Amino acid sequence: MISASVYWPASTRYTYSMDLQWIVKLIADGLVVPVVLIGAYALIKLVPNKEKYQVYSQVLMAGLTAYVAAKIIGSIYQPDQMRPFEILGVSAGASFLNNPGFPSDHALFTMAITLAVFFGAKSWRLAVICLVMTILICVGRVIALVHTPLDVVGGLLIACIGIVWYKPMNLLKKYNI
C-alpha cells in the first residue's frame, strides 16, 4: 500500500504551519513599523507649529521616563529568567533581545507611541488604530513564545507612567500659566 504522503509534495506539507509562523512574526514584529509611521505622521502633521516644541518635549520626557522606569522595574523584578520558547525547547517565533523579557520592550515602545499620538497629537482616531495594533503586537509576542502575558501587560502599564508628563502641561496651558 502506498501512503498518501508520497503523492503530496514534501515542500507543501508544512506550508500551513509555516504560513502561520510568518503571520505571527509579521504581527509580533512587523506591526511596529506602521505604529511608528502613524506616530511620526501624527506628531509632525497634526501638532500645530507653535506647540511643537512643548509637545515634542512632553513626548521625549514621557518616553524616557517610561523607559527608565521599565529598566529599573525590570532589574528589581524578573518573574522568570527564561523566555517561554526556551522553557519549551523550541525556536522563537519573533525577534527578541537576550534578556529575561520583563517588561516587553515592544509593548513599552508601541504603547508610548500610542500615548504620544493621543496626548501629544490629540488624535483619538489614530490613537485607537495604534492601540489596536499595539494589542495585536502584544498578542503576537505571546503567541510567538518570546513573552509571557505578564511581560506584555507589564510593558503596557509601565508605558503609562509617562502620562504624568502630559497631564500637568495641559493643566498649565488651560489656566494660562
Chain-wise SSE layout:
Blueprint: H1 10-13, H2 15-30, H3 32-46, H4 52-76, H5 84-88, H6 105-120, H7 124-143, H8 149-159, H9 167-174
Explained architecture:
α4 (52-76) packs antiparallel against α6. This protein is mainly α and 177 residues long. The protein has one domain: Phosphatidic acid phosphatase type 2/haloperoxidase (Vanadium-containing Chloroperoxidase, domain 1, Up-down Bundle), CATH 1.20.144. Helix content is 68%, strand content 0%. The chain is globular, with a radius of gyration of 20 Å. The model is unreliable at 3-8 (pLDDT under 50). It contains nine helices and no strands. It has helices at residues 10-13, 15-30, 32-46, 52-76, 84-88, 105-120, 124-143, 149-159, 167-174.
The total beta strand count reads 0
Mean pLDDT: 84
Task: Indicate the proportion of strand residues.
Answer: under 5%
Q: What's the SSE pattern?
A: HHHHHHHHH
Multimeric status of the protein:
single chain
Query: Could you say how many structural domains there are in total?
Result: 1
Termini distance? 86 Å
- CATH fold description: Vanadium-containing Chloroperoxidase, domain 1
Rg to the nearest angstrom? 20 Å
Biggest sheet character: none
Structural class: mainly alpha
Number of helices: 9
Morphology:
globular
Which percent bin holds the helix content?
Answer: 55-70%
| Low-pLDDT sequence parts | 3-8
CATH class: Mainly Alpha
The CATH architecture category equals Up-down Bundle
CATH superfamily assignment?
Answer: Phosphatidic acid phosphatase type 2/haloperoxidase
